[in-house]
């Protein structure tokens, strides 16, 4: 099993759609979880941290299921500007960040 | 946004050249990182510096040589690279390695092509 595995994508959705990304991780001792976004030919930027209780930031909702070692990101009412690659990131007990390959999202007008 | 800057942004070099990548962070952080991002692969951590000391080397070939003269600057010296080293090299910083504040801020990267 890969350390961090994401939906391969790509996802092509119309504006206004709701889209969900899934991610699984292999190390049960992982401590922190994040979603980063990376625009084409740009650097990754933190989108949001993911907490066990689930957390929401505007149109974005992140969920963590430690028992299943599963993380999700839900984007509601998609905008054209949401088009990017979404990276699932896990921090282990050694503080090392492990990145997934990313899922490409394209929101179409 | 100029929290973490990298130069050059693009670099083309031959296999016998020697070049250096530079990273500077203006965030007052104490940890700095080099990552490699190749096409269709996840980001790979290369080196970690915490308070100017190298704390991690992820089995990186010796043709990549990092240098951290102070907490704000990080270099990656390159020599006798191979074409498969062509990639986007990203620098990142965070307040402290292992300090609980692990949000990393990335620079724009140097896109390297080795011919």
Question: How much of the polypeptide of chain B forms β-strand, as a percent range?
Answer: over 45%
Number of strands of chain A: 11
Instruction: Choose one word for the global shape of chain B.
Output: globular
Reported for the largest beta sheet of chain B, the result is:
7 strands, mixed
Instruction: Please report the number of helical segments of chain A.
Output: 0
Quickly give the structural class of chain B: mainly beta
Helix segment count of chain B?
0
Structural class of chain A: mainly beta
Instruction: Name the helix and strand elements of chain B from N-terminus to C-terminus, one letter apiece.
Output: EEEEEEEEEEE
Please give the radius of gyration of chain B in angstroms: 13 Å
Whole-angstrom Rg of chain A: 13 Å
Largest sheet of chain A: 6 strands, mixed
Explain this structure.
The complex is a heterodimer of chains A (109) and B (115). Chain A is mainly beta and 109 residues long. Chain A has strands at 4-6, 11-14, 19-25, 32-38, 44-50, 55-57, 60-65, 70-75, 84-91, 97-99, 103-108. In chain A, strands 2, 4, 5, 9, 10 and 11 form a six-stranded mixed β-sheet that branches. A five-stranded antiparallel β-sheet of chain A has the order 1-3-8-7-6, with no helix packed on it. The N and C termini of chain A lie far apart (37 Å). The mean pLDDT of chain A is 93. Chain B has 115 residues and is mainly beta. Chain B is built from no helices and eleven strands. Chain B is globular and about 35 Å long. The model of chain B has no long low-confidence stretch (mean pLDDT 91). The chains are: A mainly beta (109), B mainly beta (115). The interface between A and B is medium-sized, with 20 and 18 residues.
